[in-house]
Amino acid sequence: MSKTNLIQAVEHGSVTLAKGFSAGGLHCGLKKKRKDLGWIFSETPAVAAAVYTRNLYQAAPLHVTQESIAVEQKIQGVLVNSGYANACTGQPGMDDAYAMRRMMAEKWGIAEHLVAVASTGLIGERIPMDKVTKGIAQADRPEHQGAEHFEEAILTTDTCPKHYAVQVEVDGKLVTIGGAAKGSGMIHPNMGTMLAFITTDAYVEQPVLLSALREITDQTFNMITVDGDTSTNDMVLVLANGQAYDQPLDQSHPDWEAFYTGFATVCRQLAKQIARDGEGATRLIEVEVKGAPDEQTAKAVGKAIVGSNLVKTAVYGKDPNWGRIVCAAGYSGQLFDPDRIRVKIGPVLVVDQGLPVPFSEEEAKRALGEDTVKIEVDLNQGSAQAVAWGCDLTYEYVRINALYRT
Fold it and tell me: In the chain, what percentage of residues exceed pLDDT 90?
């Protein structure tokens, strides 16, 4: 593997591809039929870093996980339930989250602070802990083991599991970075109901790992939107156990760029899968903003466009209404000269120097009918760029969310 080709995707790779990690999931009765209790386990304690929702209402599991990581910046096991968010449940909800941590620690024979917990689902109702207890008791059965069971167990309104993995070369050794995620609605990260778990068999000290995670999250998970709602439960957790490469990996290492790029690739692919699986969605929208005076402007313009309900419905209806695109850019809160903007829908130029140009409606409609609808906005005022992802807005989104509790 050459220096120019250090990153390779692994088909069907997930959180268990990295050395020393296992995962599983089962149905314990929190949901009617689908699996609803999942776990990830590392053979050795792994360096841990996480980012959390910026919603002022933070669910109980987030507080417990933050406490766990704070002890020695390491996590060995992660327990996740779906169906109940354990948010807005007060002290009883905190007690439930601590109980989940304690029971899983006892099951694995590890210290409580080495367990992270996460929940996703309905807000405001307590988790039926008797069902969780019975589920944990069965977690060591062979039929419940496997990344695919974990990926299914963490889903709520998602239509499919989300996973991705890459391998990179570090000092001649193969290092793996894998991930699994869930998210379909309440997606507007500032960190939506969105959970992501990343594993790697490299060793990265906690301050370096956390810094990389924060940077990459801002480029990936924080650049997606489905419906503009930021959940109470969002979390991205990364675990690095060092079983393939046990020397400290940081910015001074010659192969740091390859590792960082691989890490970013996994997060980007998971983020795109979440956006593509937006509730009721039929297409992924990718907005590339370039020619911006700075990165903040590029990001804000991109997210304004991809988050616009009028843009989203225009994509659903295959309507090349470029006015909605420039309108969203204009209310992004960023300063730019609208007379220099250039807009393309797929390969079709629709606006140049801030003015409409003649274009083929049929060709533009074809571009809007692609599985990934690409919109390019060139501000022509600098060299900064950013990419944002979202999905179209359909009748099905309204149906799903109108009936969510029933």
Answer: 80
Write the DSSP symbol of residue 144. Answer: G
- Say how far apart CA 256 and CA 262 lie, in whole Å: 10
User: pLDDT value at position 289?
Assistant: 98
Catalytic residues: 193
| Structure tokens that stand for 222 in this block | 């924080």
Contact 71, 101 (CB under 8 A): no
Residue 192 near residue 226, CB atoms below 8 Å: yes
| pLDDT one-digit tens code per residue, 221-231 | 989 876 544 55
Q: Tell whether the model's pLDDT for residue 192 goes beyond 50.
A: no
- Mind listing the pLDDT tens digit for each residue in 203-215? 999 999 999 999 9
DSSP assignment letter at 192: -
The DSSP symbol for 231 reads: P
Buried residues in 235-271 as b, exposed as e (16+ CB within 10 A): bbbbbbbbbbbeeebeeebebbebbbbbbbbbbbbbb
- What's 224's DSSP letter? B
What is the CATH code of the structural domain delimited by 3-276?
3.60.70.12
- Considering just the CA atoms, what is the radius of gyration of the chain in Å? 22
Helical pair 309-316 and 295-307, crossing angle rounded to 10 deg = 60
CATH class name, domain 284-402: alpha beta
Please report the pLDDT score of residue 190 as a whole number: 43
* Residue ranges, CATH 3.60.70.12, the chain: 3-276
